[in-house]
NAD(P)-dependent oxidoreductase
Amino acid sequence: MTPAIAVTGASGRIGGRVARRLAGAGVSQLLLGRDPARLPELPGAVKAPPASYGDAEAMRAAVDGAGTLFLVSAHEAPGRVREHKTAVDAALAAGAERIVYVSLLGAAPDATFTFARDHWHTEQYIRSTGVRHTFLRDSFYQAALPAMTGKDGVIRGPAGEGRVSAVAHEDIADAAAAVLLAELEGLDSHDGATYELTGPQALSFAEITRELSRATGRAISYVPQTREEAYASRAVYKAEPWEVQGWVSSYEAMANGEMEAVSDDVPRLTGRPATTFAEFLRENPDSYRHLAG
């Protein structure tokens, strides 16, 4: 039997896509999630007992028997790094020998985008354990760009004239599957590698809204904000301060050039070009359904 790969977040947009690709390759896998009822039915896949990252005992039971842990980062929260550490420790205690972690482009201890700091600390912890590892630093998701557009057809934020090399979920899943399967196929194990998974170009918000306008058939525009304006306009959501800071600082990271790097890692890992934003919109009309004219 092929050593099992434990796929976390297997009911989500990244984990679910990766799980389907591994099933298609005939690989045995454990599917992890807090609600097993939401996990997909896939050949060669076993649904693990319910587990959340912060529950060490449940995580250890869920990943038991897996040689590799595919760790999709937890939802943003003040204790996210602690949850990641607990999940890593549980996997190692259960016998996992390799971790492939879904990180973020620009991860750094002093990153402008506050959530990117969590990813850096998680990477550092995984390194400190000595476990074999690979990091997949994803850029901003292409699917997020239509979602951050208001029903009035306006994107508002303090991104200035910054650019973002947004990437498609399908590209992330294809790259992740290539990394996970390589060793099983006798290829490069990718141990110690850090890959930057980006789109093929870095777009300004003027270019992003131009593509959205073409796709939706209505005028979509970008209104740059100051930091003060950005916080004030988001007060209506009554979100926690740390969450609003994450929203606002993501735009500021773009303004500072921290999300504009373009890498060839997607085509190198997948053997095909990365998806452009225009292609993403053509293939995913539901992503902008709320904006369609």
